[in-house]
């Protein structure tokens, strides 16, 4: 007789930190026998890994909980339901009140306690664990990442920094993720080496304010992100390094120089500006002007001319006039983005901006968002088209859409579809961009098509 294998379904919303956290949750539950499933329908435990950064995201969670409640009624199944992530952190027990379907609430610092919390939930208690571990924020990260090792993934995230002390007036992160803290260089190097030994070729260093990294180095001193990147570039077998997300105030000259000096550091920078109006930037407490941002980008581009720039924008911040918004359009034009995320301002309870005068009408926000999005998507396709005929390295990281196709990423983070007979996942191949689609590039191996008429024994899986 075989015992029932419990199935876990994690649905993640929001940022890459949550994608990473989903893996940590699966890791914490693996010793309990849980295996992952791709759908809520056959899950024994459903975890909603939530995002609190914008209002809609939290509302989506409550509608999802409504759907789960209905599914339970209709099918008679009774999976346990957990709410994790930043909505869990921010709302805590409030979630239990608003959604009776929820069995437990767990914040980002407590995922290692999931097995214990589940046992409490099984006894009918509805535990809420949203403690910040004050001594060592990264205690829960110090174990290896078994899933990455089991799954033979090609790309992986490594958390190097968490939390934020910047207190932008619109943002909940300083309240939900707590104060800025960095992991030690030794821990980061060890995790990276383990991942690379297991087949990972590209590592993205993660942090809400990753360029504020100041983890303790082997010499007992605080190391900068630039120094950390330099150290990780020495890891043999690692092909690519990336980092996200940066704040303009923390981009120092060493980090800019790293974009010139480290071939493994990809020519891509996600550097949010939020607004192009100095008045709004001040009200947002961003601590820089539009001009300072543009000069900073000039410096990074001088170091790495083919840099693909990405960013975040908020339209309709309280008090934003037509002229302020035109300044945002102007900075987007001047900065020339390869991609960017655009958001309508959404008041988050407890943040200073939510009480500010001059909240902007929804219809005005909609119009501004549309205009900005149109500009950004024009820039995005122009950037993609500029690559046609050019040689790029493609890291193959998954099977392609059609038979014989593989998919990968360009150095600029664009998805690439390629037919490369004989190539394997994890290979970095020299390719020529042949065409652009709506969301991806098409490429062919440089130097012409490879020999496709090999003996079957030679063919790779
Ligand atoms: N409203 C709209 N967008 C927001 N962001 C953060 N907080 C808010 C908010 N209250 C956006 C910012 C940030 C990105 C992660 O989310 O642009 O850079
Ligand atoms: Fe939020 Fe600003 Fe911190 Fe980014 S820098 S996490 S937007 S407070």
From TrEMBL:
<keyword id="KW-0819">tRNA processing</keyword>
<comment type="subunit">
    <text>Monomer.</text>
</comment>
<feature type="binding site">
    <location>
        <position position="15"/>
    </location>
    <ligand>
        <name>[4Fe-4S] cluster 1</name>
    </ligand>
</feature>
<keyword id="KW-0479">Metal-binding</keyword>
<dbReference type="Pfam" id="PF04055">
    <property type="entry name" value="Radical_SAM"/>
</dbReference>
<feature type="binding site">
    <location>
        <position position="171"/>
    </location>
    <ligand>
        <name>[4Fe-4S] cluster 2</name>
    </ligand>
</feature>
<feature type="binding site">
    <location>
        <position position="51"/>
    </location>
    <ligand>
        <name>[4Fe-4S] cluster 1</name>
    </ligand>
</feature>
<dbReference type="GO" id="GO:0046872">
    <property type="term" value="F:metal ion binding"/>
</dbReference>
<dbReference type="InterPro" id="IPR013848">
    <property type="entry name" value="Methylthiotransferase_N"/>
</dbReference>
<keyword id="KW-0808">Transferase</keyword>
<dbReference type="Pfam" id="PF00919">
    <property type="entry name" value="UPF0004"/>
</dbReference>
<dbReference type="InterPro" id="IPR038135">
    <property type="entry name" value="Methylthiotransferase_N_sf"/>
</dbReference>
<feature type="binding site">
    <location>
        <position position="164"/>
    </location>
    <ligand>
        <name>[4Fe-4S] cluster 2</name>
    </ligand>
</feature>
<comment type="similarity">
    <text>Belongs to the methylthiotransferase family. MiaB subfamily.</text>
</comment>
<dbReference type="InterPro" id="IPR005839">
    <property type="entry name" value="Methylthiotransferase"/>
</dbReference>
<keyword id="KW-0963">Cytoplasm</keyword>
<feature type="binding site">
    <location>
        <position position="86"/>
    </location>
    <ligand>
        <name>[4Fe-4S] cluster 1</name>
    </ligand>
</feature>
<keyword id="KW-0408">Iron</keyword>
<dbReference type="InterPro" id="IPR002792">
    <property type="entry name" value="TRAM_dom"/>
</dbReference>
<comment type="function">
    <text>Catalyzes the methylthiolation of N6-(dimethylallyl)adenosine (i(6)A), leading to the formation of 2-methylthio-N6-(dimethylallyl)adenosine (ms(2)i(6)A) at position 37 in tRNAs that read codons beginning with uridine.</text>
</comment>
<dbReference type="GO" id="GO:0051539">
    <property type="term" value="F:4 iron, 4 sulfur cluster binding"/>
</dbReference>
<dbReference type="InterPro" id="IPR020612">
    <property type="entry name" value="Methylthiotransferase_CS"/>
</dbReference>
<dbReference type="InterPro" id="IPR007197">
    <property type="entry name" value="rSAM"/>
</dbReference>
<dbReference type="InterPro" id="IPR006463">
    <property type="entry name" value="MiaB_methiolase"/>
</dbReference>
<keyword id="KW-0004">4Fe-4S</keyword>
<protein>
    <recommendedName>
        <fullName>tRNA-2-methylthio-N(6)-dimethylallyladenosine synthase</fullName>
        <ecNumber>2.8.4.3</ecNumber>
    </recommendedName>
</protein>
<feature type="domain" description="Radical SAM core">
    <location>
        <begin position="150"/>
        <end position="382"/>
    </location>
</feature>
<dbReference type="InterPro" id="IPR058240">
    <property type="entry name" value="rSAM_sf"/>
</dbReference>
<dbReference type="GO" id="GO:0005829">
    <property type="term" value="C:cytosol"/>
</dbReference>
<dbReference type="GO" id="GO:0035597">
    <property type="term" value="F:tRNA-2-methylthio-N(6)-dimethylallyladenosine(37) synthase activity"/>
</dbReference>
<dbReference type="InterPro" id="IPR006638">
    <property type="entry name" value="Elp3/MiaA/NifB-like_rSAM"/>
</dbReference>
<dbReference type="InterPro" id="IPR023404">
    <property type="entry name" value="rSAM_horseshoe"/>
</dbReference>
<feature type="domain" description="TRAM">
    <location>
        <begin position="385"/>
        <end position="447"/>
    </location>
</feature>
<keyword id="KW-0949">S-adenosyl-L-methionine</keyword>
<feature type="domain" description="MTTase N-terminal">
    <location>
        <begin position="6"/>
        <end position="123"/>
    </location>
</feature>
<keyword id="KW-0411">Iron-sulfur</keyword>
<feature type="binding site">
    <location>
        <position position="168"/>
    </location>
    <ligand>
        <name>[4Fe-4S] cluster 2</name>
    </ligand>
</feature>
């Amino acid at each position: 007789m075989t015992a029932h294998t419990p199935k876990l379904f994690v649905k993640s919303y929001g940022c890459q930190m949550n994608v990473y956290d989903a893996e940590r949750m699966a890791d914490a539950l693996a010793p309990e026998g849980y295996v992952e499933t791709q759908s809520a329908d056959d899950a024994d435990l459903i975890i909603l890994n939530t995002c609190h950064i914008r209002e809609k995201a939290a509302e989506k969670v409550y509608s999802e909980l409504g759907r789960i409640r209905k599914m339970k009624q209709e099918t008679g199944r009774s999976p346990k339901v957990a709410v994790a992530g930043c909505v869990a952190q921010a709302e805590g027990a409030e979630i239990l009140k608003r959604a009776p379907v929820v069995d437990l609430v767990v914040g980002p610092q407590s995922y290692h306690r999931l097995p214990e919390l589940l046992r409490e939930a099984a006894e009918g208690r509805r535990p809420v664990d949203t403690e910040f571990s004050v001594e060592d924020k990264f205690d829960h990260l110090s174990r290896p990442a078994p899933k990455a090792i089991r799954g033979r993934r090609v790309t992986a995230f490594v958390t190097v920094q968490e939390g934020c002390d910047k207190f932008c007036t619109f943002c909940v992160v300083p309240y939900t993720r707590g104060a800025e803290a960095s992991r030690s260089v030794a821990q980061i190097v060890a995790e990276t080496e383990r991942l690379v030994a297991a087949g990972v070729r590209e590592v993205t260093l993660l942090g809400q304010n990753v360029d504020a990294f100041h983890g303790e180095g082997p010499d007992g001193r605080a190391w900068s992100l630039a120094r950390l990147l330099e150290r990780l570039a020495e890891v043999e077998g690692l092909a690519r390094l990336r980092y996200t997300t940066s704040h303009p105030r923390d981009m120092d000259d060493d980090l800019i120089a790293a974009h010139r000096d480290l071939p493994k550091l990809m020519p891509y920078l996600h550097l949010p500006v939020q607004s192009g109006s100095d008045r709004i930037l001040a009200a947002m407490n961003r601590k820089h002007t539009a001009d300072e941002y543009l000069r900073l980008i000039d410096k990074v581009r001088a170091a790495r001319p083919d840099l693909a720039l990405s960013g975040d924008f908020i339209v309709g911040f309280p008090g934003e006039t037509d002229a302020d918004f035109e300044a945002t359009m102007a900075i987007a034009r001047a900065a020339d983005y390869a991609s960017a995320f655009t958001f309508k301002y959404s008041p988050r309870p407890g943040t200073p901006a939510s009480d500010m005068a001059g909240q902007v009408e929804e219809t005005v926000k909609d119009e501004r968002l549309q205009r900005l999005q149109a500009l950004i998507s024009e820039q995005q396709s122009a950037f993609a088209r500029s690559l046609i005929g050019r040689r790029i390295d493609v890291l193959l990281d998954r099977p392609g859409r059609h038979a014989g196709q593989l998919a990968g990423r360009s150095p600029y983070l664009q998805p690439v579809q390629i037919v490369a007979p004989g190539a394997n996942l994890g290979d970095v191949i020299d390719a020529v961009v042949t065409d652009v689609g709506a969301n991806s590039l098409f490429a062919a191996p440089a130097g012409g098509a490879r020999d496709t008429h090999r003996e079957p024994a030679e063919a790779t899986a």
